């Protein structure tokens, strides 16, 4: 009970209300003391009226009047004349005098607290103003013990009433908190537990219904999180299924390409000059396809193979990319150009680097072809003191903002209808294995440019070990 939100709210409410009542108690007890003394002054004034009516009062009647007023004597000043109106023997000397005519609130509070703390049965003098302008002042002498007893009784009743009010208020707030806060919070927790047990079940997604603004914001945030997580889980499941299907297809495709690779050995023996010129390119293409299938199978089992770094002439790899993509372009009005320096060598895995640039060039070529306009794709390269760079730029229509947000995310980074969005994801992963990166350099209505950076250092990052 005490560990619950509503239980702690109940205790805190009771404590805070009691503190508020204590703060009210001090001026209240001071006000009670003032009223008590004023009441004694009024009673004494009424008793003195009898003497004004009849100058000769019997001793017994005077004593009865003083007893009823609760005072020892009464002094009334009228017309600048101080006159002892009623009197009786005073058991002890007067200890203190209190003037109520000009007493401030702080003085009244101080005197009240001191009276509560003092236990002596003192005799005190009280000075006040007569009611209804019956004189200049009235002065009485009384015992302090009955005053202190009345103040203690009043204070006790105030404390008991404060405790009752505190408990009653706390109970009402306890019920309100449970209804307005605790119950909706438990509902949110219930949705979270249900969703955690079966995240694929859409019934576990919360339906915001709270009327409290803060709780409604929490429910909206939870709903958004659950929907995004459900989408991510479904995406992951689809990727797992696709990975299994690709692995199966790659297995059979590898066998078919292996057979085709055997046939190319005989094609190379042909005497036809055209066949002899194209046969090496065909052999290279089939070899790369077999290598890609084997890599896909390896990825389906565990991970992308680490790059085998060697010094390779970049110009030769780029020429292979240009020849392959220009052949694939067919009748498309797109030119594939390379301006890579002939003597530039880089330290990289040639097969993986070929796949990276091929994916970038193919994406650019398809983007231009989709517009139906003429254009070109240009490959440039160079080196810096610490790295090599390869730039693939085109004259295509540019990338929309939504595509830019998910460029390197599989199945989300495609700008072409029917595209899978795998090309850039594969390129980024392969270059990351080299310790480099692929980044979007610029994009707009005049075209797009991607830059591949390869470090010259020996430190190579294994993407699978870091992931």
TrEMBL record:
The chain crosses the membrane at residues 6-30, 158-181. The keyword ATP-binding applies. It catalyses: ATP + protein L-histidine = ADP + protein N-phospho-L-histidine. GO terms for molecular function: ATP binding; phosphorelay sensor kinase activity. It comes from the Bacteria. InterPro entries: HATPase_C_sf, HATPase_dom, His_kinase_dom, HisK_dim/P_dom, HisK_dim/P_sf, Sig_transdc_His_kin-like_C. Its EC number is 2.7.13.3. Keywords: ATP-binding, Coiled coil, Kinase, Membrane, Nucleotide-binding, Phosphoprotein, Transferase, Transmembrane, Transmembrane helix, Two-component regulatory system. It is an enzyme of class 2 (transferase). Residues 248-458 form the Histidine kinase domain. It holds the Pfam family HisKA. Residues 215-242 form a coiled coil. This is histidine kinase. The lineage of its organism: Bacteria, Pseudomonadati, Pseudomonadota, Alphaproteobacteria, Rhodobacterales.
């Amino acid at each position: 009970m005490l560990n619950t939100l509503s239980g702690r709210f109940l205790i805190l409410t009771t404590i805070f209300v009691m503190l508020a009542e204590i703060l009210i108690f001090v001026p209240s007890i001071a006000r009670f003391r003032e009223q008590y003394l004023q009441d004694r002054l009024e009673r004494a004034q009424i008793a003195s009226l009898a003497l004004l009516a009849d100058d000769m009062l019997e001793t017994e009647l005077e004593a009865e009047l003083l007893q009823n007023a609760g005072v020892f004597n009464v002094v009334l000043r009228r017309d600048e004349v101080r006159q002892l109106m009623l009197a009786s023997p005073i058991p002890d000397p007067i200890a203190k005098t209190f003037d109520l005519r000009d007493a401030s609130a702080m003085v009244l509070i101080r005197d009240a607290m001191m009276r509560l703390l003092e236990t002596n049965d003192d005799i005190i003098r009280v000075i006040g103003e007569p009611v209804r302008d019956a004189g200049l002042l009235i002065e009485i002498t009384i015992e302090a013990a009955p005053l202190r007893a009345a103040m203690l009784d009043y204070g006790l009743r105030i404390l008991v009433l404060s405790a009752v009010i505190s408990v009653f208020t706390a109970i009402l707030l306890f019920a309100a908190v449970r209804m307005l806060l605790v119950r909706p919070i438990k509902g949110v927790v219930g949705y979270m537990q249900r969703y955690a047990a079966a995240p694929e079940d859409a019934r576990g997604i919360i339906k915001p219904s709270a009327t409290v603004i803060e709780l409604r914001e929490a429910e909206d945030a939870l709903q958004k999180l659950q929907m995004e997580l459900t989408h991510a889980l479904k995406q992951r499941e689809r990727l797992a299924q696709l990975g299994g299907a690709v692995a199966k297809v790659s297995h059979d495709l590898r066998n078919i390409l292996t057979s085709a690779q055997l046939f190319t050995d005989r094609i190379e023996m042909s005497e036809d000059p055209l066949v002899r010129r194209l046969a090496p390119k065909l052999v290279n293409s089939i070899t790369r396809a077999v290598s890609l299938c084997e890599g896909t199978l390896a990825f389906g089992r565990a991970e992308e193979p680490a790059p085998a770094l060697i010094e390779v002439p970049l110009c030769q790899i780029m020429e292979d990319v240009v020849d392959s993509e220009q052949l694939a372009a067919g009748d498309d009005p797109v030119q594939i150009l390379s301006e890579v320096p002939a003597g530039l060598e880089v330290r990289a895995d040639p097969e993986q680097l070929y796949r990276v640039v091929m994916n970038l060039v193919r994406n650019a070529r398809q983007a231009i072809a989709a517009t139906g306009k003429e254009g070109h794709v240009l490959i440039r390269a160079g080196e810096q003191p610490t790295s090599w760079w390869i730039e693939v730029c085109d004259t295509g229509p540019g990338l929309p903002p939504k595509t830019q947000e998910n460029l390197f995310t599989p199945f989300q980074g495609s700008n072409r209808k029917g595209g899978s969005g795998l090309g850039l994801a594969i390129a980024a992963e392969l270059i990351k294995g080299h310790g480099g990166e692929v980044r979007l350099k610029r994009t707009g209505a005049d075209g797009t440019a991607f830059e591949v950076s390869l470090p010259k250092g020996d430190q190579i990052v294994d993407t699978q070990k870091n992931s």
